[in-house]
Amino acid sequence: SSADDLELEELELPPRYRPESISALCQITRFNEAEIKRLYRGFKAECPSGVVREDTFKLIYSQFFMQNGLANCGPYAHYVFNTLDQDNSGIINFEDFIQTLSILSRGSLEEKLTWTFALYDINGDGYVTKEEMTDIVTAIYDMVDLTPSQARAFDESIKTKVDALFQKMDTNRDGVVTLEEFIDCCRNDEVISNSMTIFDAIVL
């Protein structure tokens, strides 16, 4: 019955989430109390339950990117959500959100690159394969609204870029890129560093 369905839906919802104290959040981020309060108000306005599921995250993400003239951000939003959802619970809470925002807006280059590596390491095994790198780069390019002919040209461009980038990063030629290889390569190549972190400023 519809009443039973409603009860099931209510059971599936997470309990209303309350974040840690402001002082605790100040210790694990680079934000002060006033900034955390402002960010939390914005977070709660979009997510009254205090947590975000992937479908809601994609919706918020798409609204942001549409305002910035970008189109299909679904695949990229999926990968960003998975990186934020570190415990694979299927939900993001305020701590997940604010810690990532702190890294991307005020973290060191190494912290930003470590986060970016986690984004590219789709299966979380500690290595980035050429296939994973291709998936992420493709998802980034998918956000740009292209004509069919432009899309075909971009497909070739993606393959060329990924092949060159992967060869440069995989210094020991074992077919995977480690975090150390990733950071070393990005640190020593300004062009790569900029290209790998191009969307950091607008991730959230």
TrEMBL record:
Family matches, as InterPro entries: EF-hand-dom_pair (IPR011992), EF_Hand_1_Ca_BS (IPR018247), EF_hand_dom (IPR002048), Recoverin (IPR028846)
Keywords (A to Z) from UniProt: Calcium, Metal-binding, Repeat
Gene3D superfamilies: EF-hand
GO terms, molecular function: calcium ion binding
All residue ranges annotated as the EF-hand domain in the record: 72-107, 108-143, 157-192
Family: Belongs to the recoverin family.
Name used for this protein in its record: Putative kv channel-interacting protein 4
Originating species: Phlebotomus kandelakii
